[in-house]
Design brief:
- It contains three helices and 14 strands.
- The protein is mainly beta.
- The protein has one domain.
- Strand 2 and strand 3 form a beta hairpin.
- The longest helix has 9 residues.
- The chain is globular, with a radius of gyration of 20 Å.
- It starts with 9 loop residues before the first strand and ends in a 7-residue tail after the last helix.
Length: 206
């Protein structure tokens, strides 16, 4: 008898509520606090809306500052960030949502940052196969600010937590960002739902 297929691991991300950018990321029995986009979690994300895209996506690559941290053993492809690295966020560019060399004629953000947020980055495979329209770019897992301030659409973790997480993920890992926040997912049934249960009740069910 053949062994049952093993489901690929999923990193599930969910906001606490629609009014906050704070959330939790869960992988198996592990759970980490995280910050999400200032624009909320959206299924219809577009470039510049600061929203984290809802949905399930692969994880592509790891970029890191080897002058600032020691990367643990990882399964995803990884390489150090260089001073000339940038990420194109201009939908008009043929390099949209790609790593680019800076300076660059197209709008981009620098990967080499002084604030430490990109000391460790995991690229999420969102709108990259191939990049289309203006559906957003540069969706990463990266390091959070000390106060877990909202991101521009990424999922951000405490430095120590992201270092732990990158050692647990690999090419088979998917990230699943839930569109429904935790408080709505566990909301109790309303009065109409309760009355409907009584209407559907049949004495034969006893």
């Amino acid at each position: 008898m053949s062994e049952p297929a093993t489901l690929p691991p999923v990193l599930t991300v969910q906001a606490d509520s629609a009014e906050t950018s704070l959330g939790w990321a869960t992988l198996g029995a592990r759970r980490w606090r995280c910050a999400l986009g200032a624009g909320g979690v959206r299924e219809d994300k577009v470039e510049g809306d600061a929203a984290t895209p809802a949905g399930r996506y692969p994880l592509r690559h790891i970029y890191f500052r080897n002058d600032r941290l020691v990367l643990p053993a990882v399964s995803l492809p990884a390489r150090p960030i260089a001073e000339h690295d940038g990420w194109c966020d201009d939908p008009r560019s043929p390099a949209y949502n790609r790593l680019v060399h800076v300076p660059n004629e197209w709008s981009h953000e620098k990967m080499w940052r002084e604030d430490g947020l990109y000391d460790l980055v995991v690229v999420v495979g969102y709108n990259d196969d191939p990049p289309e329209g203006e559906w957003g770019s540069a969706i990463f897992l990266h390091i959070a600010r000390d106060d877990y301030a909202p991101t521009q659409g990424c999922v951000a973790f405490r430095r120590e937590d992201l270092l732990e997480l990158v050692a647990l993920i690999g090419p088979q890992t998917a990230i699943n960002v839930l569109s429904i926040p935790a408080d709505e997912a566990r909301a109790p049934a309303n009065d109409d739902d309760v009355m409907k249960q009584f209407e559907d009740f049949d004495e034969q069910d006893w």
